[in-house]
Amino acid sequence: MEQIGVLIVNRKTNEVLLEVEGLHKKYDGITVLEDINLSINKGEVVVILGPSGCGKSTLLRCLNGLEKIQGGDIRFHGKSIVSKDVNWQEIRQRIGMVFQNYELFPHMTVIENIILGPVKVQKRNKSEVLEQARQLLDRVGLLDRQNSYPRQLSGGQKQRIAIVRALCMNPEIMLFDEVTASLDPEMVREVLDVILGLAKQGITMLIVTHEMSFARAVADRIVFIDEAKICEITDSHEFFTKPKTERAQHFLNIFQY
After folding, report:
1. How far apart are CA 25 and CA 185, in angstroms?
2. Residues in a beta bridge with 96
3. In a designed cystine with 42, which of 15, 67, 71, 144 is the match (CB 3.0 to 4.6 A)?
4. CA–CA dist 253, 257 (Å, integer)
5. pLDDT (tens digit, 9 = 90+) per residue, 39-97?
6. Are 75 and 81 spatial neighbours (Cβ–Cβ below 8 Å)?
7. What is the 8-class DSSP label of residue 244?
């Protein structure tokens, strides 16, 4: 991928939105995340890096309630969201997530896919939601495709629609899980440009990616995970110029950094 210029935006605050403390996650007795500690401030963009299979995507799924944890705590606005009585339908409206696969309903048009959640789940006024959806589609350059069906769109267009759908729920934080992994190389940039635009607007984001130039451009902080553990958390510029651990240095050397 072509080099992306470093993004410098004064967007961070001291308000902690999401905290992870001592998180443990196992699959069939095998530890996939161990003693994960992390906090995300409002307006901050944090990128999670690490080799395949280290637990990056699993961490996002835990934060969105898609995976149960075996230890530790996750707090949103200071309140634990790991107890059995947590209403995850409500929490997911505030912690949005975009996956590798677009998960658009094939029998619905673009605009119908986008407004379904806000109208049916949030019970918002349809005309107000339609106006917001069209504004967001215009922002990502796809207003002219609002009446198209997913089968009529490219992979990059589908992923941009998935992002718009999540944004239309007005989440407080966005989780992006390898959103370019299933795209052809020429489609990657159009999706990353949308996320860069969100960063400039001060949207709080936690991003898993293998796109190193993009990570360097968009992140305030880098979280580097290897073998189920966080090896280091550091400022983005420092990570890419002077990583603290040999493991991170080796990882960057693979990507020719």
Report:
1. 33
2. 174
3. 15
4. 5
5. 999 999 999 999 988 999 999 999 999 999 999 999 999 999 998 889 999 999 999 99
6. yes
7. S
